[in-house]
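Our consortium's second objective concerns turning raw sequence data into structural hypotheses that experimental partners can test. To show how far this objective has progressed, the report includes one record in full. It was chosen at random from the queue rather than selected for favorable results. The single chain below, 46 residues long, was entered without modification.
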Amino acid sequence: MINFEEELERFKPSLEVEAVSDAIVKSDLTDMTDIMMEIMKEIKEQ
């Protein structure tokens, strides 16, 4: 059976949409666009 009091104690709210967006923008993640741009840059330099 679910112990609601225990679940409420362990509850951690998720980030709001804006906070998630800011966290994603601030992180330095390489995506496929970055990889393709780097490959194109290397090809042009050759």
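The partners drew two points from this record. The radius of gyration is 21 Å. Residues 15-45 form one domain. Both points have been shared with the crystallography group to help prioritize constructs.
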